Amino acid sequence: MKSAHLVPTIAALVLTLIPACRQTGAVSAEMLRETICAQNIAVTPHQPEWVTDTKDTHPVSDADLPRLRNLLTRGTLRFIPDHYYRDEAEGNRDDTTAELFYLYGDNSQCLGGRVINEQVYMDDLELDEETRRELYTLLQPYLQKLPRESAQ
Fold this sequence. Notes:
Strand content: 15-25%
Radius of gyration: 14 Å
């Protein structure tokens, strides 16, 4: 029981160490921490929560949530220029993938992600290849449930 509370505490500590003065585009270290530490996180299509049908919201299981948090806390915050948040036509990693999704926290914070070559790239995090592959393996069952125009 105590370990369930330990992961968000560790995530908060790790993300607090990210320098506050770093320019981060539209997502701040605080927003990132709040999303990772949300009590519940769901995989959703890449669209605003208020237009997402509840059948397209796939909560990450209690068994998978600690692993997801652990993988996300391995990353470092990326600088994403604001124009990528307004116009996604040119992928923010120079990609052209249409396999996009959100990780939505129950606190209304979210992180964008994309699937490229069986790896999950989080828009606002820099992750190593091993972590991206682990994220893909972990999230694949949820991603498969999204509408066809989202991540598969």
